[in-house]
Sequence to fold (243 residues):
Amino acid sequence: MKPLRSCSAFIISLVIIVVYEARAGHSLSRKPDRGYYDFFYFVQQWPGAYCDSKWGCCFPKTGKPAENFSIHGLWPNFNNGSYPQNCDNLNRNPFDKSKIVGLIKRMQVEWPTLSCPSGDGFKFWSHEWNKHGTCSANVLNQQSFFQKTLDFKIKSNLIQHLSDAGIHPNDGFYRAEDVEAAIEDGLGVTPYLECNFDKEGNSQLFQVYLCVNKLANAFIQCPVMPHGRRCASSVQFQSFSRF
Ligand code: 5GP
Ligand code: 5GP
Fold:
């Protein structure tokens, strides 16, 4: 009887651990001290396409952002395409403004909120930290999560690489492969382009995904491409000045 009882106890414990790990989005094969993810998607949005989408946009309280890409987020991901999210179930490490005071001016410029009603950005940043940042907190604390994300924005300089290739936000249509090639020529890695589709079915450049290594110190080729709506072969690059 005794060996049978301890065997059942072992099986029950194993089931509890597996269920806990699965709910937390973890894999048992990963060591906790290395963080539960393999790489990041660094995602930037094009404000012209955000404003022209079905949900529309509101400018932040700090004013209309520049006609430039802005940050959506830095999202930990697994090599198999799945991703962890909301990794701080116990709310031990909630978003804390005081940890990023020195970054706020830059965040307002590079990471403005465009959703309605108008905000000051804190809700958006807090959402990004809670959903994504908490999953890489073993590697990047709050300050470095936001700092690194801002640095990747500057380093990527998408608008410049596109402009160098004659691609401008003038409502014109460009070949998706030329847009990708312009970014790849500038950064040495292949981006993933996500599009919105308007009522006429036009494919409009909405978000650009770049991959970043686990330590968040370099762009890398994406181990797996994301699931966002792939652009058609011809892509409209919308003007933001008319909004
Ligand atoms: P959507 O369903 O609009 O493409 O994405 C909604 C949200 O889910 C994104 O803003 C992001 O927070 C998350 N998400 C979507 N796709 C991915 C992905 O491939 N990797 C990660 N890490 N998050 C994603
Ligand atoms: P995600 O799609 O990353 O899970 O969610 C983004 C959340 O942040 C949504 O609740 C969205 O309303 C909010 N949000 C606030 N400002 C922005 C913005 O400028 N862009 C995007 N994509 N989401 C924003």
